[in-house]
Amino acid sequence: MTQLAVHDPATGERIAELPADDAASVAARARAARTAQPGWAALSLQERKACIGHFRDGVVRDLEALAVTMTRETGKPIRMSRNELNGLLPRIDFFLKEVDRAVATETVLDEGGMKERIEHVPLGVVGNISAWNYPWFVGCNVILPALLTGNAVLYKPSELASLTGLEIARLLHQAGVPKDVFVPLVGGRDVGAALLEQAVDGIFFTGSHATGQRIAQAVGSRFIRLQLELGGKDPTYVCDDADPRMAAESLADGAMYNTGQSCCSVERIYVHERIHDAFVAAFVETVQGFKVGDPMSEDTYIGAITRAAQLDVLDAQVAEAKAKGAVLHLGGHRLRGPGNWYEPTVFGNVDHRMALMREESFGPIIGIQKVKSDEEAVTLMNDSRYGLTAGVYTPSAERARGLLAQLHAGSLYWNCCDRVSPRLPWSGYGDSGVGLTLSKYGIQAFTRPRAWHLRAA
Ligand code: NAD
């Protein structure tokens, strides 16, 4: 059997060796899931909800140990690991509360002996290929509504968050979800690719645009449900009437939280020239206050870079930005190892010739560009192939609404950023993906609306 080595990105140390799946085991486990799924779907919704409720109890009970595991394998600062797990609880509560309404059978006509009904039936067996940066959030955004609505789930956690993936499986199984209904598959891209070859009814993917394209090519001709939650290059505009310090403190957190490794991290900032200098000074001062260090320390804000290969991406963006005239206000270098480390990095005088302002950085690095007008800001914010989130800072609700309505993004923020709500749909424009999770629509995404035409004889 092949093995998957797990490393701590903060130290480079090997912390586990896991038995991994291969093409044959993936096929066998997919067949078992197909056999088990009808029994799971035949349970009442209340019975499935009870299992997910027990899963929630397990997360609460084991929270500290789960946070430590996530920090050790991803380098996420321990406080942020706890935040993710605590933030998961209201998501679970939302799914448990909303699912009855989201999948209730609707009678849409009842007239002259004729009835029309919409019934939401499970897709069947779905595959979930997931990312490492918020493994509990992005995993559970798919896994929980899929299970609640009666699907079996083949779950391929990221190879960089496999210990966490196995903890999710342990807690679901302990909570009463049968082992063939929720099936973790351990391994890297080969195991993900093997999963795509199985006779599944849907593929739900969270990860990079490049992998999303490969997945779309692999399954596109099969006409199964395909959702792709991909990267972003999320912009924010700070208007001339905004409080520069308030905006800077909020956006520094939005750019650097989770070491900048969030799909909705702020990745581009445009500031009106009237408050530009005050904003940059406050931004740099805020970032200088972020403690870089051991992810297990309570006061660490910037942890390790989880994927070693991302260091090359950051180096290349820094070198190109400098060569094209950007001004480096802070950072700009790797930190000495062992492990994967990068200084929090702030550039000014940037423009859209630079990859720093066009391609996802996925690290603690940001470019700040001066603009002359709202029109210029809107044009630059929309000058991207991505469209996950976009934001505006101004005290004026009317100005914000007018600006935000022009932006090509799935989520719009006024005086806030880097925020996800279970009550709202999470989706992207353009290369940020297709389909959505969260909200009632993100529950219905795991069902097929079936039409019933019923005439009484
Ligand atoms: P990735 O694309 O490298 O890997 C994602 C998953 O795909 C992993 O489980 C990996 O093993 C698997 N995989 C890789 N190649 C495959 C192949 N050929 N076939 C099948 N599976 C394959 O992404 P990552 O580094 O894990 O995650 C970071 C990316 O995810 C960023 O771009 C980030 O913006 C994005 N992301 C998006 C959201 C969102 O909600 N839109 C949320 C979190 C992360």
Automatic annotation (TrEMBL):
UniProt cross-references to Gene3D superfamilies, sorted A to Z: Aldehyde Dehydrogenase, Chain A, domain 1, Aldehyde Dehydrogenase, Chain A, domain 2
Top-level taxon in the UniProt lineage: Bacteria
Family membership, please give it. Belongs to the aldehyde dehydrogenase family.
Q: Name one GO molecular function term.
A: oxidoreductase activity, acting on the aldehyde or oxo group of donors, NAD or NADP as acceptor
Where is the Aldehyde dehydrogenase domain positioned along the sequence? Answer: 4-450
Q: Which UniProt keywords apply?
A: Oxidoreductase
Spans through the membrane: none
Recorded source organism is Ramlibacter lithotrophicus
Q: What name is this protein filed under?
A: Aldehyde dehydrogenase family protein
Respond yes or no to whether keyword Hydrolase is given for this record.
no
Catalytic residues, per the record, are E229
Pfam families per record = Aldedh
